[in-house]
Amino acid sequence: MRQYRWVLKQIEDDEGVKSLGQNLNDLPVELTRALMLRGITTLSAAQDFFRATLAELHDPFLMKGMKAAVERIASAVTSGEKVCVYGDYDVDGTTATAVLTSFLESISCNVSFFIPNRHKHGYGLSSTGIDICAEDGATLIITVDCGITSVTEIQYAATRGIDVVICDHHKPLDELPDAVAVLDPKQAECPYPFKELCGCGVTYKLVQGLLSHLNRDPSEAEQYLDLVALATASDMVPVTGENRILLREGLARLRTGLRRGIRFLAMEAKVKLTECSSTTILFSLGPRINAAGRLGEADRAVRLFLAETDSDAAASAEELEKINDKRREIDRETRDSAIKLAEIRLTSRDRQALVLYDPDWNVGVIGIVASRIVERFYRPTVMLTKVNGKIKGSARSVNGISVFDAIRDCEDLLLDFGGHDYAAGVTLVEENIQAFCDCFESAVAARIKPELLDPVIEVDAEMDLTSLNDRFWAVLKQFEPFGPGNTAPTFWAKDLLLAGNPKTVGREHSHIKFLVTPRDNYAPEREVIGFGLGSKLEMLKSSQRSGETIDLLFSIQENTWAGRTSLQLRAHDVRLSNSIYP
Hints:
Layout: E1 5-8, H1 14-23, H2 29-37, H3 43-51, H4 66-79, E2 82-87, H5 91-106, E3 110-114, H6 127-135, E4 138-144, H7 151-159, E5 163-167, E6 181-183, H8 199-213, H9 225-234, H10 241-254, H11 260-269, H12 278-295, H13 299-306, H14 310-348, E7 354-357, H15 366-377, E8 381-387, E9 390-396, H16 403-408, E10 416-419, E11 423-428, H17 433-447, E12 456-459, E13 461-462, H18 470-477, E14 491-505, E15 511-518, E16 526-530, H19 537-546, E17 550-561, E18 564-576
Parallel strand pairs: 1-12, 2-3, 2-4, 4-5, 5-6, 7-8, 13-14, 16-18
Antiparallel strand pairs: 8-9, 9-11, 10-11, 14-15, 14-17, 15-16, 17-18
Helix pairs in contact: 1-2, 4-8, 5-8, 5-9, 5-13, 8-9, 9-10, 9-12, 11-13, 11-14, 12-14, 13-14, 14-15
Protein backbone atom coordinates (compact mmCIF):
# COMPACT_ATOMS: atom_id res chain seq x y z
CA MET A 1 0.00 0.00 0.00
CA ARG A 2 1.20 3.52 -0.79
CA GLN A 3 3.03 5.34 2.03
CA TYR A 4 2.17 8.98 2.59
CA ARG A 5 4.23 11.76 4.07
CA TRP A 6 2.45 13.38 7.00
CA VAL A 7 3.04 17.12 6.89
CA LEU A 8 1.86 19.44 9.65
CA LYS A 9 0.82 22.68 7.98
CA GLN A 10 2.89 25.58 9.24
CA ILE A 11 1.59 28.80 10.79
CA GLU A 12 4.14 31.53 11.33
CA ASP A 13 2.00 33.60 13.67
CA ASP A 14 1.66 31.44 16.80
CA GLU A 15 0.63 34.51 18.80
CA GLY A 16 -2.12 35.09 16.24
CA VAL A 17 -3.49 31.61 16.93
CA LYS A 18 -3.55 32.34 20.66
CA SER A 19 -5.18 35.75 20.19
CA LEU A 20 -7.86 34.50 17.79
CA GLY A 21 -8.70 31.60 20.10
CA GLN A 22 -9.17 34.00 23.01
CA ASN A 23 -11.41 36.27 20.91
CA LEU A 24 -13.54 33.24 20.03
CA ASN A 25 -14.34 32.38 23.66
CA ASP A 26 -11.21 30.30 24.22
CA LEU A 27 -11.74 28.13 21.17
CA PRO A 28 -9.59 24.95 21.33
CA VAL A 29 -6.21 25.51 19.71
CA GLU A 30 -6.81 22.67 17.21
CA LEU A 31 -9.87 24.45 15.78
CA THR A 32 -8.28 27.91 15.96
CA ARG A 33 -5.32 26.57 14.01
CA ALA A 34 -7.67 25.08 11.39
CA LEU A 35 -9.35 28.48 11.00
CA MET A 36 -6.03 30.28 10.58
CA LEU A 37 -5.01 27.79 7.90
CA ARG A 38 -8.17 28.71 6.00
CA GLY A 39 -7.20 32.38 6.03
CA ILE A 40 -9.53 33.23 8.94
CA THR A 41 -7.31 35.44 11.09
CA THR A 42 -9.69 37.92 12.73
CA LEU A 43 -12.90 37.83 14.72
CA SER A 44 -14.85 39.52 11.91
CA ALA A 45 -13.47 37.05 9.34
CA ALA A 46 -14.52 34.17 11.60
CA GLN A 47 -18.01 35.64 11.91
CA ASP A 48 -18.23 35.89 8.11
CA PHE A 49 -16.97 32.31 7.76
CA PHE A 50 -19.54 30.90 10.17
CA ARG A 51 -22.46 33.26 9.48
CA ALA A 52 -22.30 34.35 5.79
CA THR A 53 -25.76 34.50 4.19
CA LEU A 54 -27.28 34.65 0.72
CA ALA A 55 -27.51 38.43 1.14
CA GLU A 56 -23.73 38.55 0.72
CA LEU A 57 -23.76 37.06 -2.78
CA HIS A 58 -22.42 39.40 -5.45
CA ASP A 59 -24.61 41.39 -7.85
CA PRO A 60 -25.01 39.21 -10.98
CA PHE A 61 -24.58 42.32 -13.18
CA LEU A 62 -20.96 42.52 -12.07
CA MET A 63 -20.43 39.58 -14.43
CA LYS A 64 -19.19 40.63 -17.85
CA GLY A 65 -21.88 40.03 -20.49
CA MET A 66 -24.80 39.78 -18.06
CA LYS A 67 -26.68 42.82 -19.35
CA ALA A 68 -26.44 41.65 -22.98
CA ALA A 69 -27.44 38.12 -22.00
CA VAL A 70 -30.60 39.04 -20.08
CA GLU A 71 -31.68 41.56 -22.71
CA ARG A 72 -31.39 39.00 -25.53
CA ILE A 73 -33.18 36.30 -23.55
CA ALA A 74 -35.94 38.68 -22.44
CA SER A 75 -36.41 39.76 -26.07
CA ALA A 76 -36.78 36.11 -27.11
CA VAL A 77 -39.41 35.53 -24.43
CA THR A 78 -41.38 38.63 -25.40
CA SER A 79 -41.35 37.83 -29.11
CA GLY A 80 -42.19 34.13 -28.66
CA GLU A 81 -38.93 32.83 -30.14
CA LYS A 82 -38.01 29.20 -29.65
CA VAL A 83 -35.17 28.99 -27.13
CA CYS A 84 -33.04 25.88 -26.55
CA VAL A 85 -31.04 25.35 -23.35
CA TYR A 86 -27.98 23.33 -24.42
CA GLY A 87 -26.26 21.59 -21.51
CA ASP A 88 -23.47 19.20 -20.69
CA TYR A 89 -24.14 15.60 -19.67
CA ASP A 90 -22.65 15.59 -16.16
CA VAL A 91 -24.24 16.63 -12.85
CA ASP A 92 -23.22 20.26 -13.33
CA GLY A 93 -24.62 20.41 -16.85
CA THR A 94 -27.88 18.57 -16.18
CA THR A 95 -28.69 20.58 -13.04
CA ALA A 96 -27.91 23.83 -14.89
CA THR A 97 -30.17 22.72 -17.74
CA ALA A 98 -32.97 21.94 -15.31
CA VAL A 99 -32.58 25.28 -13.49
CA LEU A 100 -32.74 27.42 -16.63
CA THR A 101 -35.41 25.36 -18.40
CA SER A 102 -37.63 25.40 -15.33
CA PHE A 103 -37.23 29.14 -14.86
CA LEU A 104 -37.83 29.99 -18.52
CA GLU A 105 -40.96 27.82 -18.52
CA SER A 106 -42.17 29.76 -15.46
CA ILE A 107 -42.01 33.05 -17.41
CA SER A 108 -43.86 31.58 -20.40
CA CYS A 109 -40.85 31.15 -22.64
CA ASN A 110 -41.13 28.77 -25.60
CA VAL A 111 -38.23 26.65 -24.37
CA SER A 112 -36.82 23.16 -24.85
CA PHE A 113 -33.53 21.61 -23.79
CA PHE A 114 -30.87 19.50 -25.46
CA ILE A 115 -28.20 17.37 -23.78
CA PRO A 116 -25.72 15.76 -26.19
CA ASN A 117 -25.22 12.01 -26.15
CA ARG A 118 -21.50 11.59 -25.52
CA HIS A 119 -21.40 8.57 -27.84
CA LYS A 120 -23.19 10.27 -30.75
CA HIS A 121 -22.41 13.95 -30.37
CA GLY A 122 -19.35 14.16 -28.14
CA TYR A 123 -18.68 16.84 -25.55
CA GLY A 124 -20.15 20.31 -25.63
CA LEU A 125 -21.62 22.38 -28.41
CA SER A 126 -21.40 20.57 -31.77
CA SER A 127 -22.60 21.18 -35.30
CA THR A 128 -24.79 18.07 -35.03
CA GLY A 129 -26.39 19.40 -31.87
CA ILE A 130 -26.90 22.82 -33.46
CA ASP A 131 -28.63 21.16 -36.41
CA ILE A 132 -31.01 19.39 -34.03
CA CYS A 133 -31.82 22.70 -32.32
CA ALA A 134 -32.33 24.39 -35.71
CA GLU A 135 -34.67 21.64 -36.88
CA ASP A 136 -36.66 22.21 -33.68
CA GLY A 137 -37.10 25.84 -34.67
CA ALA A 138 -34.70 27.40 -32.17
CA THR A 139 -33.42 30.90 -32.91
CA LEU A 140 -31.58 31.26 -29.61
CA ILE A 141 -29.34 28.70 -27.90
CA ILE A 142 -28.21 29.24 -24.32
CA THR A 143 -25.30 26.96 -23.46
CA VAL A 144 -24.87 25.97 -19.82
CA ASP A 145 -21.65 24.39 -18.49
CA CYS A 146 -20.18 24.38 -22.00
CA GLY A 147 -19.48 26.61 -25.00
CA ILE A 148 -16.56 28.76 -23.88
CA THR A 149 -14.15 27.11 -26.36
CA SER A 150 -16.71 26.57 -29.16
CA VAL A 151 -15.45 29.25 -31.55
CA THR A 152 -16.10 27.31 -34.77
CA GLU A 153 -19.43 25.90 -33.60
CA ILE A 154 -20.85 29.32 -32.78
CA GLN A 155 -19.80 30.57 -36.19
CA TYR A 156 -21.73 27.61 -37.62
CA ALA A 157 -24.78 28.45 -35.50
CA ALA A 158 -24.85 31.90 -37.12
CA THR A 159 -25.12 30.28 -40.57
CA ARG A 160 -28.22 28.47 -39.29
CA GLY A 161 -29.75 31.75 -38.11
CA ILE A 162 -29.22 30.99 -34.42
CA ASP A 163 -27.91 33.41 -31.80
CA VAL A 164 -25.96 31.97 -28.88
CA VAL A 165 -25.59 33.06 -25.25
CA ILE A 166 -22.76 31.24 -23.47
CA CYS A 167 -23.09 30.45 -19.77
CA ASP A 168 -19.95 28.55 -18.72
CA HIS A 169 -17.27 28.32 -16.04
CA HIS A 170 -14.40 26.50 -17.78
CA LYS A 171 -11.12 28.12 -18.78
CA PRO A 172 -11.44 30.10 -22.03
CA LEU A 173 -8.90 29.94 -24.82
CA ASP A 174 -7.17 33.03 -26.15
CA GLU A 175 -10.00 33.57 -28.66
CA LEU A 176 -13.52 33.87 -27.32
CA PRO A 177 -16.50 32.71 -29.39
CA ASP A 178 -18.41 35.45 -31.22
CA ALA A 179 -21.59 34.99 -29.21
CA VAL A 180 -24.31 37.49 -28.35
CA ALA A 181 -23.08 37.34 -24.77
CA VAL A 182 -20.47 35.34 -22.87
CA LEU A 183 -20.96 34.68 -19.16
CA ASP A 184 -17.86 33.15 -17.62
CA PRO A 185 -16.11 34.65 -14.56
CA LYS A 186 -12.80 33.26 -15.83
CA GLN A 187 -12.84 35.29 -19.06
CA ALA A 188 -10.41 38.20 -19.32
CA GLU A 189 -11.54 41.54 -17.90
CA CYS A 190 -14.56 40.06 -16.13
CA PRO A 191 -14.92 42.10 -12.93
CA TYR A 192 -17.03 39.50 -11.15
CA PRO A 193 -15.23 39.07 -7.78
CA PHE A 194 -15.63 35.29 -7.40
CA LYS A 195 -14.12 33.21 -10.18
CA GLU A 196 -14.83 29.64 -9.06
CA LEU A 197 -18.57 29.12 -9.58
CA CYS A 198 -19.58 25.84 -11.17
CA GLY A 199 -21.64 25.89 -14.37
CA CYS A 200 -24.90 25.65 -12.45
CA GLY A 201 -23.69 28.46 -10.19
CA VAL A 202 -23.19 30.74 -13.22
CA THR A 203 -26.66 29.70 -14.43
CA TYR A 204 -28.09 30.63 -11.01
CA LYS A 205 -26.57 34.09 -11.41
CA LEU A 206 -28.17 34.35 -14.87
CA VAL A 207 -31.57 33.54 -13.36
CA GLN A 208 -31.01 36.22 -10.71
CA GLY A 209 -30.11 38.67 -13.48
CA LEU A 210 -33.25 37.80 -15.45
CA LEU A 211 -35.42 38.25 -12.37
CA SER A 212 -33.94 41.70 -11.75
CA HIS A 213 -34.43 42.63 -15.42
CA LEU A 214 -38.09 41.60 -15.10
CA ASN A 215 -38.46 43.73 -11.93
CA ARG A 216 -38.96 40.65 -9.81
CA ASP A 217 -37.27 39.69 -6.57
CA PRO A 218 -33.96 37.87 -7.27
CA SER A 219 -34.60 35.76 -4.15
CA GLU A 220 -37.13 33.79 -6.24
CA ALA A 221 -34.07 31.96 -7.60
CA GLU A 222 -33.56 30.33 -4.20
CA GLN A 223 -35.99 27.57 -5.18
CA TYR A 224 -33.14 26.19 -7.34
CA LEU A 225 -30.48 26.11 -4.62
CA ASP A 226 -30.88 22.35 -4.10
CA LEU A 227 -29.78 21.80 -7.71
CA VAL A 228 -26.92 24.29 -7.29
CA ALA A 229 -25.76 22.30 -4.24
CA LEU A 230 -25.75 19.05 -6.23
CA ALA A 231 -23.61 20.67 -8.92
CA THR A 232 -21.23 22.51 -6.57
CA ALA A 233 -20.41 19.38 -4.59
CA SER A 234 -20.20 17.08 -7.64
CA ASP A 235 -18.05 19.38 -9.79
CA MET A 236 -15.36 19.64 -7.09
CA VAL A 237 -15.08 23.43 -7.30
CA PRO A 238 -13.50 25.20 -4.31
CA VAL A 239 -15.91 25.38 -1.37
CA THR A 240 -14.94 28.95 -0.55
CA GLY A 241 -16.57 32.34 -1.00
CA GLU A 242 -19.88 32.22 -2.85
CA ASN A 243 -19.64 28.47 -3.39
CA ARG A 244 -19.60 27.87 0.35
CA ILE A 245 -22.74 29.98 0.81
CA LEU A 246 -24.54 28.40 -2.14
CA LEU A 247 -23.63 24.87 -1.06
CA ARG A 248 -24.60 25.39 2.57
CA GLU A 249 -27.95 27.00 1.74
CA GLY A 250 -28.54 24.49 -1.05
CA LEU A 251 -27.95 21.56 1.29
CA ALA A 252 -30.46 23.03 3.74
CA ARG A 253 -33.05 23.19 0.97
CA LEU A 254 -32.13 19.75 -0.37
CA ARG A 255 -32.68 18.21 3.08
CA THR A 256 -36.31 19.33 3.01
CA GLY A 257 -37.02 16.94 0.11
CA LEU A 258 -39.14 19.55 -1.68
CA ARG A 259 -37.95 18.50 -5.15
CA ARG A 260 -39.66 15.17 -5.75
CA GLY A 261 -37.06 13.93 -8.24
CA ILE A 262 -34.25 14.24 -5.69
CA ARG A 263 -36.47 12.73 -3.00
CA PHE A 264 -37.11 9.58 -5.04
CA LEU A 265 -33.47 9.37 -6.12
CA ALA A 266 -32.43 9.44 -2.47
CA MET A 267 -34.88 6.61 -1.74
CA GLU A 268 -33.28 4.50 -4.48
CA ALA A 269 -29.82 5.29 -3.10
CA LYS A 270 -30.96 4.55 0.48
CA VAL A 271 -29.85 8.02 1.51
CA LYS A 272 -31.56 9.98 4.29
CA LEU A 273 -32.04 13.41 2.76
CA THR A 274 -32.44 14.97 6.20
CA GLU A 275 -28.78 14.10 6.86
CA CYS A 276 -27.47 14.88 3.37
CA SER A 277 -23.98 16.41 3.16
CA SER A 278 -21.53 17.27 0.40
CA THR A 279 -20.04 13.79 0.92
CA THR A 280 -23.47 12.21 0.38
CA ILE A 281 -23.76 14.07 -2.92
CA LEU A 282 -20.25 13.18 -4.02
CA PHE A 283 -20.48 9.45 -3.34
CA SER A 284 -24.20 8.61 -3.52
CA LEU A 285 -26.43 11.05 -5.40
CA GLY A 286 -23.90 12.49 -7.86
CA PRO A 287 -22.75 9.16 -9.36
CA ARG A 288 -26.35 8.15 -10.02
CA ILE A 289 -27.03 11.40 -11.84
CA ASN A 290 -23.79 11.12 -13.80
CA ALA A 291 -24.62 7.55 -14.78
CA ALA A 292 -27.36 8.83 -17.09
CA GLY A 293 -24.82 10.68 -19.20
CA ARG A 294 -22.09 8.06 -18.95
CA LEU A 295 -24.11 5.15 -20.32
CA GLY A 296 -27.35 6.51 -21.67
CA GLU A 297 -29.19 9.71 -22.36
CA ALA A 298 -28.38 12.45 -19.84
CA ASP A 299 -31.76 14.06 -20.46
CA ARG A 300 -33.10 11.35 -18.15
CA ALA A 301 -31.47 13.25 -15.27
CA VAL A 302 -33.03 16.53 -16.40
CA ARG A 303 -36.45 14.87 -16.58
CA LEU A 304 -35.90 13.59 -13.03
CA PHE A 305 -35.28 17.14 -11.77
CA LEU A 306 -38.27 18.51 -13.67
CA ALA A 307 -40.70 15.70 -12.70
CA GLU A 308 -44.09 17.11 -11.70
CA THR A 309 -45.68 13.90 -10.40
CA ASP A 310 -44.54 11.25 -7.96
CA SER A 311 -45.01 8.51 -10.55
CA ASP A 312 -42.76 10.29 -13.07
CA ALA A 313 -40.12 10.97 -10.40
CA ALA A 314 -40.20 7.38 -9.14
CA ALA A 315 -39.86 5.97 -12.66
CA SER A 316 -36.92 8.25 -13.51
CA ALA A 317 -35.15 7.49 -10.23
CA GLU A 318 -35.56 3.76 -10.68
CA GLU A 319 -34.20 4.03 -14.23
CA LEU A 320 -31.11 5.92 -13.00
CA GLU A 321 -30.49 3.32 -10.30
CA LYS A 322 -30.45 0.53 -12.87
CA ILE A 323 -28.12 2.50 -15.13
CA ASN A 324 -25.81 3.17 -12.18
CA ASP A 325 -25.62 -0.55 -11.35
CA LYS A 326 -24.49 -1.23 -14.90
CA ARG A 327 -22.03 1.67 -14.73
CA ARG A 328 -20.41 0.19 -11.61
CA GLU A 329 -19.82 -3.12 -13.36
CA ILE A 330 -18.23 -1.41 -16.37
CA ASP A 331 -16.16 0.76 -14.00
CA ARG A 332 -14.65 -2.32 -12.34
CA GLU A 333 -13.79 -4.00 -15.64
CA THR A 334 -12.24 -0.82 -17.06
CA ARG A 335 -10.32 -0.11 -13.85
CA ASP A 336 -8.78 -3.58 -13.76
CA SER A 337 -7.77 -3.31 -17.42
CA ALA A 338 -6.30 0.18 -16.95
CA ILE A 339 -4.30 -0.85 -13.86
CA LYS A 340 -2.63 -3.68 -15.79
CA LEU A 341 -1.79 -1.35 -18.66
CA ALA A 342 -0.43 1.32 -16.30
CA GLU A 343 1.78 -1.22 -14.52
CA ILE A 344 3.25 -2.33 -17.85
CA ARG A 345 3.99 1.26 -18.88
CA LEU A 346 5.57 2.16 -15.56
CA THR A 347 7.67 -1.03 -15.54
CA SER A 348 9.06 -0.35 -19.01
CA ARG A 349 10.09 3.22 -18.17
CA ASP A 350 10.04 5.74 -15.36
CA ARG A 351 7.23 8.09 -16.34
CA GLN A 352 5.95 11.38 -14.93
CA ALA A 353 2.54 10.89 -16.58
CA LEU A 354 0.34 8.11 -17.94
CA VAL A 355 -1.50 7.99 -21.27
CA LEU A 356 -3.52 4.78 -21.55
CA TYR A 357 -5.46 3.67 -24.63
CA ASP A 358 -7.93 0.89 -25.32
CA PRO A 359 -10.40 1.26 -28.22
CA ASP A 360 -12.94 -0.90 -26.39
CA TRP A 361 -13.23 1.15 -23.21
CA ASN A 362 -16.59 2.81 -22.65
CA VAL A 363 -16.15 6.56 -23.12
CA GLY A 364 -18.68 7.18 -20.36
CA VAL A 365 -16.52 5.75 -17.57
CA ILE A 366 -12.96 6.66 -18.55
CA GLY A 367 -13.09 9.90 -16.55
CA ILE A 368 -13.97 8.25 -13.26
CA VAL A 369 -11.47 5.43 -13.90
CA ALA A 370 -8.75 7.99 -14.70
CA SER A 371 -9.33 9.36 -11.19
CA ARG A 372 -8.81 5.85 -9.76
CA ILE A 373 -5.55 5.49 -11.72
CA VAL A 374 -4.31 8.83 -10.34
CA GLU A 375 -5.16 7.66 -6.81
CA ARG A 376 -3.26 4.41 -7.29
CA PHE A 377 -0.16 5.57 -9.21
CA TYR A 378 -0.15 9.29 -8.39
CA ARG A 379 0.62 10.42 -11.92
CA PRO A 380 -1.35 12.82 -14.14
CA THR A 381 -3.35 10.44 -16.32
CA VAL A 382 -5.16 10.55 -19.65
CA MET A 383 -7.37 7.62 -20.63
CA LEU A 384 -8.24 7.31 -24.33
CA THR A 385 -10.78 5.26 -26.25
CA LYS A 386 -12.26 5.24 -29.76
CA VAL A 387 -15.67 6.75 -30.50
CA ASN A 388 -17.02 6.93 -34.06
CA GLY A 389 -13.55 6.79 -35.55
CA LYS A 390 -12.10 9.50 -33.31
CA ILE A 391 -10.04 9.15 -30.15
CA LYS A 392 -11.72 10.61 -27.08
CA GLY A 393 -9.97 11.06 -23.77
CA SER A 394 -10.47 12.14 -20.16
CA ALA A 395 -7.60 13.53 -18.10
CA ARG A 396 -7.13 13.84 -14.35
CA SER A 397 -4.23 15.28 -12.39
CA VAL A 398 -2.41 15.44 -9.05
CA ASN A 399 -2.14 18.45 -6.78
CA GLY A 400 0.15 21.09 -8.17
CA ILE A 401 -0.07 20.16 -11.87
CA SER A 402 -2.61 21.77 -14.21
CA VAL A 403 -3.63 19.03 -16.62
CA PHE A 404 -5.37 21.66 -18.76
CA ASP A 405 -2.13 23.61 -19.23
CA ALA A 406 -0.17 20.41 -19.97
CA ILE A 407 -2.71 19.40 -22.61
CA ARG A 408 -2.63 22.88 -24.06
CA ASP A 409 1.07 22.34 -24.81
CA CYS A 410 -0.09 19.50 -27.10
CA GLU A 411 -2.76 21.59 -28.83
CA ASP A 412 -1.31 21.05 -32.33
CA LEU A 413 -1.95 17.30 -32.00
CA LEU A 414 -5.58 17.65 -30.95
CA LEU A 415 -8.88 18.20 -32.70
CA ASP A 416 -10.42 19.64 -29.54
CA PHE A 417 -9.83 19.97 -25.82
CA GLY A 418 -11.27 21.73 -22.77
CA GLY A 419 -11.52 21.59 -19.00
CA HIS A 420 -9.71 22.97 -15.97
CA ASP A 421 -6.66 22.33 -13.77
CA TYR A 422 -7.57 18.89 -12.47
CA ALA A 423 -9.90 17.49 -15.14
CA ALA A 424 -10.01 17.88 -18.91
CA GLY A 425 -11.17 16.20 -22.10
CA VAL A 426 -9.40 15.71 -25.44
CA THR A 427 -10.23 14.61 -28.98
CA LEU A 428 -7.61 13.54 -31.52
CA VAL A 429 -7.03 11.23 -34.49
CA GLU A 430 -5.67 7.74 -33.89
CA GLU A 431 -2.35 8.29 -35.69
CA ASN A 432 -1.49 11.07 -33.19
CA ILE A 433 -1.78 8.91 -30.06
CA GLN A 434 1.93 8.17 -29.66
CA ALA A 435 2.92 11.76 -30.42
CA PHE A 436 0.38 12.98 -27.88
CA CYS A 437 1.70 10.49 -25.32
CA ASP A 438 5.24 11.81 -25.77
CA CYS A 439 4.14 15.45 -25.77
CA PHE A 440 1.99 15.08 -22.64
CA GLU A 441 4.84 13.29 -20.84
CA SER A 442 7.19 16.16 -21.71
CA ALA A 443 4.63 18.81 -20.73
CA VAL A 444 4.09 17.24 -17.32
CA ALA A 445 7.83 16.64 -16.80
CA ALA A 446 8.50 20.33 -17.46
CA ARG A 447 6.07 21.31 -14.71
CA ILE A 448 6.57 18.62 -12.12
CA LYS A 449 8.90 18.60 -9.15
CA PRO A 450 9.90 15.31 -7.51
CA GLU A 451 8.00 16.11 -4.33
CA LEU A 452 4.75 16.47 -6.29
CA LEU A 453 4.88 12.74 -7.07
CA ASP A 454 5.39 11.92 -3.39
CA PRO A 455 1.84 11.90 -2.00
CA VAL A 456 1.31 13.98 1.09
CA ILE A 457 -1.41 14.16 3.71
CA GLU A 458 -1.47 17.65 5.16
CA VAL A 459 -2.45 17.99 8.81
CA ASP A 460 -4.24 20.92 10.41
CA ALA A 461 -3.20 20.25 13.98
CA GLU A 462 -1.92 17.74 16.49
CA MET A 463 -4.76 16.71 18.77
CA ASP A 464 -5.22 15.16 22.17
CA LEU A 465 -8.39 13.05 22.02
CA THR A 466 -9.39 14.45 25.43
CA SER A 467 -10.16 17.70 23.59
CA LEU A 468 -13.02 16.04 21.73
CA ASN A 469 -16.13 17.09 23.60
CA ASP A 470 -19.58 18.47 22.76
CA ARG A 471 -18.39 22.05 22.27
CA PHE A 472 -15.51 20.95 20.03
CA TRP A 473 -17.91 19.03 17.81
CA ALA A 474 -20.50 21.86 17.76
CA VAL A 475 -17.89 24.29 16.44
CA LEU A 476 -16.36 21.79 14.02
CA LYS A 477 -19.76 21.18 12.42
CA GLN A 478 -19.89 24.88 11.58
CA PHE A 479 -16.83 24.41 9.35
CA GLU A 480 -19.14 22.54 6.95
CA PRO A 481 -19.89 22.18 4.12
CA PHE A 482 -16.63 20.53 3.16
CA GLY A 483 -14.97 20.20 -0.22
CA PRO A 484 -11.90 21.45 -2.11
CA GLY A 485 -10.48 24.55 -0.44
CA ASN A 486 -12.34 23.72 2.76
CA THR A 487 -11.70 20.06 3.45
CA ALA A 488 -12.66 18.56 6.78
CA PRO A 489 -9.82 19.40 9.21
CA THR A 490 -7.31 16.57 9.55
CA PHE A 491 -5.86 15.90 13.00
CA TRP A 492 -2.82 13.95 14.18
CA ALA A 493 -3.17 11.94 17.39
CA LYS A 494 0.00 10.37 18.79
CA ASP A 495 0.70 7.45 21.10
CA LEU A 496 -2.69 5.76 20.97
CA LEU A 497 -3.39 2.28 22.26
CA LEU A 498 -5.74 -0.14 20.57
CA ALA A 499 -8.77 -1.16 22.60
CA GLY A 500 -10.47 -4.32 21.39
CA ASN A 501 -9.69 -6.31 18.29
CA PRO A 502 -9.24 -4.54 14.93
CA LYS A 503 -11.20 -6.06 12.05
CA THR A 504 -11.70 -5.58 8.33
CA VAL A 505 -15.16 -4.82 6.97
CA GLY A 506 -16.85 -4.22 3.64
CA ARG A 507 -16.56 -5.77 0.22
CA GLU A 508 -13.29 -7.67 -0.17
CA HIS A 509 -12.40 -6.62 3.42
CA SER A 510 -10.97 -3.38 2.07
CA HIS A 511 -11.94 -1.22 5.08
CA ILE A 512 -10.91 -1.46 8.72
CA LYS A 513 -12.50 -0.76 12.11
CA PHE A 514 -10.85 -0.49 15.50
CA LEU A 515 -11.02 1.33 18.84
CA VAL A 516 -8.35 3.64 20.25
CA THR A 517 -7.64 5.39 23.53
CA PRO A 518 -4.79 7.75 24.56
CA ARG A 519 -1.89 6.06 26.33
CA ASP A 520 -1.30 8.68 29.03
CA ASN A 521 -4.68 10.40 29.44
CA TYR A 522 -8.11 9.18 30.30
CA ALA A 523 -10.57 9.60 27.46
CA PRO A 524 -13.47 7.55 26.16
CA GLU A 525 -12.62 4.86 23.65
CA ARG A 526 -13.15 6.17 20.14
CA GLU A 527 -14.25 4.08 17.18
CA VAL A 528 -12.14 4.45 14.04
CA ILE A 529 -13.18 3.59 10.48
CA GLY A 530 -10.54 3.49 7.77
CA PHE A 531 -11.93 3.25 4.25
CA GLY A 532 -9.50 1.49 1.93
CA LEU A 533 -7.10 0.80 4.81
CA GLY A 534 -7.79 -2.93 5.15
CA SER A 535 -4.14 -3.71 4.41
CA LYS A 536 -3.22 -2.12 7.77
CA LEU A 537 -4.83 -4.99 9.72
CA GLU A 538 -1.68 -7.00 10.38
CA MET A 539 0.21 -3.92 11.52
CA LEU A 540 -2.55 -3.10 13.98
CA LYS A 541 -2.69 -6.66 15.28
CA SER A 542 1.06 -6.55 15.81
CA SER A 543 0.67 -3.29 17.73
CA GLN A 544 -1.99 -4.87 19.90
CA ARG A 545 0.13 -7.92 20.71
CA SER A 546 3.20 -5.89 21.61
CA GLY A 547 1.46 -3.02 23.33
CA GLU A 548 3.15 -0.64 20.91
CA THR A 549 1.34 2.65 20.32
CA ILE A 550 0.11 3.99 17.00
CA ASP A 551 -0.22 7.44 15.43
CA LEU A 552 -3.43 8.27 13.61
CA LEU A 553 -4.38 10.85 11.02
CA PHE A 554 -8.13 11.41 11.05
CA SER A 555 -11.10 13.66 10.58
CA ILE A 556 -14.19 13.55 12.79
CA GLN A 557 -17.69 12.60 11.71
CA GLU A 558 -21.00 11.44 13.10
CA ASN A 559 -21.99 7.82 12.66
CA THR A 560 -25.57 6.62 13.07
CA TRP A 561 -26.18 2.92 13.59
CA ALA A 562 -29.28 1.18 14.93
CA GLY A 563 -30.80 4.52 15.83
CA ARG A 564 -27.79 5.64 17.88
CA THR A 565 -25.55 8.50 16.79
CA SER A 566 -21.97 8.85 18.03
CA LEU A 567 -18.75 10.53 16.97
CA GLN A 568 -16.39 8.45 14.86
CA LEU A 569 -12.82 9.04 13.76
CA ARG A 570 -12.36 8.60 10.02
CA ALA A 571 -8.78 7.43 9.49
CA HIS A 572 -6.78 8.84 6.60
CA ASP A 573 -3.66 6.88 7.57
CA VAL A 574 -2.25 4.98 10.55
CA ARG A 575 1.24 3.85 11.49
CA LEU A 576 3.29 2.60 14.43
CA SER A 577 4.44 5.49 16.60
CA ASN A 578 8.10 4.45 16.51
CA SER A 579 8.21 3.76 12.78
CA ILE A 580 10.55 5.76 10.59
CA TYR A 581 8.70 7.53 7.80
CA PRO A 582 9.65 10.43 5.56
